[in-house]
Amino acid sequence: MFVYSLYNQRVSPEQYLRIGELSRRTGVSVELLRAWEKRYGLLEPARSQGGFRLYSDDDAERVLAMRSHLGNGLAAAEAARRALAPEPAGHAPAGGVEQGKDDLAEALATFAEARAHASFDRMLASLTLDTVLADVVLPYLHELGESWARGETTVAQEHFASNLLRGRLLGLARGWGAGVGPHALLACPPGELHDLGLLVFGLALRSRGWRITYLGQDTPLSTIAEQARALGPDHVVLALSSPERLDEAVDELAALAAVSPVSLGGAGATPQLAEQAGVSQLAGDPVTEADRLTATRGAR
What is the distance between the alpha carbons of residues 58 and 40, in angstroms, rounded to a whole number? Predict the structure, then answer.
């Protein structure tokens, strides 16, 4: 049996989705899907012989793109425009990355909150999320840490910059637990307060189709294990700045690995610690490791 599209093309019905299945696949409510179809023309449904709207994989891709753009802070109309007419991968104005990073760094160094937010907004509007994370946020955080270690950045400047960026990253993370992709449980072990790299990693995973449960800073291993047993994530990732955070908890870490696959990331994730606990090490930058873990899981 075949159905006919609006353009009278014969297509197999199994190529199409009813709106309820489209909702389940994309994590967007039926009501919102209908609103996006009506307001922005985001969806192009075919009609069954019985008059039901039927949606294609292309419709699902546009919905997921719309969600991604909204998550990047774009207004709904602009998010829909980009979903309908995607820009080439890696598109960015000449000099946009370096100029954006320099503007952001200067604003943060001078406590210019409104200017820092405006700079971040401009980059989200003109660059891909991966570019903002990999080419702006991560290099800036590295330079900030080096500058602080040399005594060129004050404690106040470091705290201001870190807190503003943490707030922006958490804003981008809103709704990252929804969807049907692989599930990652992210946390920092006891005593670990440096979570910006882990936030970047989670956002990079999310843009690759993962669902994220984020426990954040200074989380007891017993709590992480409890949630791993309750949620059954596909992967648990712990971020630490020093191996001393887990030196005396190797047995607990090994027990956690018996519940779910575990990886360690950050400067404190040494090969020795990972080997002792029987877990894997994420040795690269967060965006690169998100790619690697996704390739392993086949999430994309």
Answer: 15
